[in-house]
Amino acid sequence: TDRVLAFRDINPQAPTHVLVIPKEHHATVGALVEADVALLGECVSAAQEIARQEGLVSGDGTEPGYRLVTNTGPQAGQSVHHVHFHVLGGRRLSWPPG
Hints:
Helix 1 packs across helix 2 (about 35-55). About 25% of the residues lie in helices and about 20% in strands. A 4-stranded antiparallel β-sheet has the order 1-2-4-3, with helices on one face. The protein is built from 2 helices and 4 strands. It is globular.
């Protein structure tokens, strides 16, 4: 969209691994919420649309499913300091994640 970009991860962790990012810089999801909660909603909407396009959910948003992940801070594994969301799917994903 005008405010959100999506592209495949260069180091995929699942058969489908797409990153969704706001074009405007925000270091973390918390910073994004503080600055523009509507943009957060646009990112989540984009992730849902990608999941549909990739066959991870049906038109009504059900099975088989996908995982939406964002890491915030070094202990959570954030290595890129621009908020981004991972859309993961295409196989059974275990829990806890690691």
